[in-house]
Amino acid sequence: MSRGKARKPTPEFERDRPNEWPQMRVGKSVCIRDHDNGRRSVTEFYGELGRFYNLRHAYDRAHELKDPYLAPHGFFRRLAHGNTGHAREFLEKFGPLVLSAGKRFTPGCHVGVSLEQFWTAHSRFCLVTNLWESRDDRARLAAALLEVYRHRQDRSPFEELPIGTKFGPPPSTNHQLYRFPWEEVDQEPEEWLHRAGLADLRNCAFYLIHLELNLHMRSRHIVWQRSWEPPKEGWRVVIWTESLWSAMWEFWGCDTASLSWRRCPHCQRLFYPKRRDQFYCKPRQQALASKREYARKLRARQKHGKKLQKRQGPRNRKEPQQ
Questions:
Q1: How many CB atoms lie under 10 A from the CB of residue 15?
Q2: Distance CA 60, CA 51 (A)
Q3: What CA–CA distance (Å, rounded) separates 153 from 181?
Q4: CA angle, 116 as apex, 55 and 161 as ends, to 5°?
Q5: Is the pTM value of this prediction over 0.85?
Q6: What tens digit of pLDDT does each residue of 196-242 get?
Q7: What's the sign of the alpha-carbon dihedral 22, 24, 219, 270?
Q8: Measured between alpha carbons, how far is 155 from 166 in angstroms, rounded to an integer?
Q9: 3-class secondary structure for the chain?
Q10: Are 238 and 225 in contact (CB under 8 A)?
């Protein structure tokens, strides 16, 4: 038996319960065999809830170290869709996407996670975040909008409503489905996307993002929390985290209001830029890219100069003497 000092339990009023979420210790998995190809695929994970971590602290640390993968929403965006090992790693690092109120604050509670639901949620998150990541590239943005249109009815198990659901002002629960611009003018989506300018594409994408962020905030609650600052005699307003799923949408929405993550063209890694003109995750790659851009502009100027010399050459050539 250890003779060390027993750790004092954290007083209840000092726990940041609205932002606490449990990790998951995955114990076993349920597999099925595909008789067509003879392979086994995991359909569910079972385990127990482990230690708590603070969602806000994870988000703040990710920004402090400029690494989106330290936050749940960044790590979730990174997952290879359908990769069982990636799903297990996410669950053990950040926990299940949703939990009932009774299980959430019960360490050791046994839970199960359906991978079909997990990957459906992942698909929805990637569809919407890809709109934002493609906002400066017309071809990519058009393809991202078309992908959302084709898969908008693939409902998430945690949000029964499809992408692009509009709600009336609170507390109204009336909702209707957003009509895409090509639906308003009765055109084929490919035809409208081919003719539309970048500004029109961005307006459509931003409106869809706006609707999706509000959709995932509609069940959140505002609560009072005892202040941690000395002398700990006041209170402060906080948002109660209903689920890890809704918290990830909130964190990503906050990212879009500042310098959001970018994808490095060299290694395809997501990173938080330190400056607005940083487009590579490492200084060395940024410096090499600047040199390549300088060399490209220099070659273009030299090529332009040679063309001018060829045009002006016959005019400046002296006539031969008789």
A1: 16
A2: 19
A3: 17
A4: 75
A5: no
A6: 999 999 999 999 999 999 999 888 889 898 887 777 788 888 889 99
A7: positive
A8: 15
A9: CCCCCCCCCCCHHHCCHHHEEEEEEEEEEEEEEECCCCEEEEEEEEEEEEEEEEHHHHHHHHHHCCCHHHCHHHHHHHCCCCCHHHHHHHHHHHCCCCCCHHHHCCCCCEEEEEHHHHHHHHHHHHHHHHHHHCCCCHHHHHHHHHHHHHHCCCCCCCCCCCCCEEECCCCCCCEEECCCHHHHCCCCHHHHHHHCCHHHHHHHHHHHHHHHHHHCCCCCEEEEEECCCCCCCCEEEEEECCCHHHHHHHHHHHHHCCCCCEECCCCCCEECCCCCCCCCCCHHHHHHHHHHHHHHHHHHHHHHHHHHHHHHHHHHCCCCCC
A10: yes
Six-digit token string for 315: 């005019």
Please give the single-letter amino acid code of residue 65: L
Tokens of 180: 């895409």
